[in-house]
Design goal:
Layout lengths: L2 H20 L12 H42 L2 H70 L2 H131 L22 H19 L3 H14 L5 H13 L4 H14 L4 H12 L22
Helix pairs in contact: 1-2, 1-4, 2-3, 2-4, 3-4, 5-6, 6-7, 7-8, 7-9, 8-9
Length: 413
């Protein structure tokens, strides 16, 4: 039974009682039924139980919200923001608790007023019953006087009846005062009904807000779970990348070993170059920065197989150049230069010199002379050839012919 229906029943009951008092006649008035009031009290108790249930539900939602806030703080590290929100929610909980205490106090007052209503109704019923008994006695006496036709008794009975009527009027005035008091009580009950309706609306709004908050927290929990899944995927990706890094580290370690081997090989070559330079230094007038013969190849620090391959190609090109087979000489010089592009500046120089002699190969000549100077910037023949190429687009002076290979110097024993 809703509160509005309960209040309508109380109002109808009070209207019926007041109507019976206003139109009471000589007949006996019926007793007032208090079962409706008891039903109203039970309904008020049901309202209190519902409010207690709402409070328990709010407490459960508060616990759930606190648990979700704890999980959110553990997952994404936003403890500061969540603590602030938790503080705000705690403040709102305190406000709701204070409002609930005030509502309980008001409901207790209403219950006390409602409990007084059956007592007043019972007293009115008792008085009406007494009045009915007196009226019945008066009617019996009037009938008896009519039977005996005694004038004196009739006069006395009329006087008594008049006194009874006066008393009845007094009782009627008292009843009207009581009715006025009940009207005041009904007005208070109407005010209490309005207050209860407002409280019920506030509870409904608060319940809606709490449901919205619970939904928001559920969405937040879903987001946090999704974030946790993303973190798990990221962790798996990091593990996979860690494995890749381990494999790359092993590859780098292997490359370090290869580089160490190459470094050892370079050291051996450097030692060979130093030995060759020592030998070539014994040749009168030999300078690797000015010489153009193939003896320079011995200063490159190559192994015997590498040196022999480069020297064979270069000597073939030199022979063809001397026989004026410039195109074929250019090809051999290019092959020799590309066979050891990091050290063979001699073949690069002679490839530029051959290209200078050919038509429409000036760009190739510039390219190869730049490569020769990139390997040995102090190589005088290449410097002079570059200046000559820069001065004129066409070859002005023929390059110096390669000299015949001198006899290889003998090692000192």
């Amino acid at each position: 039974m809703s509160k509005k229906f309960l209040l309508l029943v109380l109002a109808a009951l009070l209207a019926a009682v007041l109507t019976s008092w206003a139109y009471a006649d000589e007949a006996a008035a019926p007793a007032v039924d208090t079962s409706a009031l008891e039903s109203a009290i039970n309904s008020a108790a049901n309202v209190t139980a519902r409010e207690a249930e709402l409070a328990a539900r709010e407490a459960d939602l508060g616990k759930r919200e606190i648990e979700l806030v704890r999980k959110a703080r553990e997952l994404n590290g936003t403890s500061g923001v969540l603590v602030g929100r938790e503080t705000q929610l705690a403040k709102r909980e305190l406000e709701i608790t204070a409002r609930e205490a005030d509502l309980a106090r008001r409901e207790a007052e209403l219950a006390r007023k409602t409990a007084e209503l059956p007592d007043a109704t019972a007293e009115i019923a008792k008085r009406e019953s007494e009045l009915s008994k007196r009226e019945e006695a008066l009617a019996a006496r009037e009938a008896e006087l009519l039977k005996t036709s005694d004038a004196k008794k009739l006069t006395d009975e009329f006087a008594l009846r008049e006194q009874a009527l006066i008393k009845r009027e007094e009782d009627q005035a008292k009843r009207e005062a009581e009715a006025n008091r009940l009207d005041e009580l009904a007005k208070k009950l109407a005010d209490r009904e309005a207050n209860l309706a407002q409280s019920e609306k506030e509870f409904a709004d608060r319940e809606g807000a709490l449901n919205a908050k619970a939904k928001e927290l559920e969405e937040l929990e879903a987001k946090l779970n999704a974030h946790a899944d993303e973190l798990g995927g990221l962790e798996a990706s990091l593990n996979a990348k860690s494995g890749e890094l381990d494999s790359k580290a092993a590859e780098i370690s292997q490359r370090d070993k290869v580089l160490a081997g190459k470094e050892t090989e370079f050291k051996v070559r450097a030692e060979r170059v130093a030995a060759r330079e020592n030998l070539l230094a014994e040749i009168p007038g030999f300078n690797p920065d000015t010489a153009t013969e193939s003896t320079i190849i011995y200063t490159f620090g190559l192994s015997k197989a590498e040196r022999d391959a480069v020297k064979a190609l270069h000597d073939n090109g030199a022979a063809k150049f001397r026989n004026n087979r410039i195109t074929q000489a250019y090809d051999d010089f290019v092959k020799a230069a590309e066979l050891q592009p990091r050290v063979n500046y001699l073949s690069a120089y002679w490839a530029a010199a051959a290209a200078e002699r050919l038509r429409n190969r000036r760009d190739d000549a510039v390219n190869w002379v730049n490569k020769a100077l990139a390997i040995n910037p102090n190589y005088k023949p290449a410097q002079e050839l570059k200046k000559r190429l820069e001065r004129a687009p066409a070859p002005a002076n023929p390059p110096v012919r390669p000299q015949r290979r001198p006899q290889q110097p003998q090692r000192k024993r």
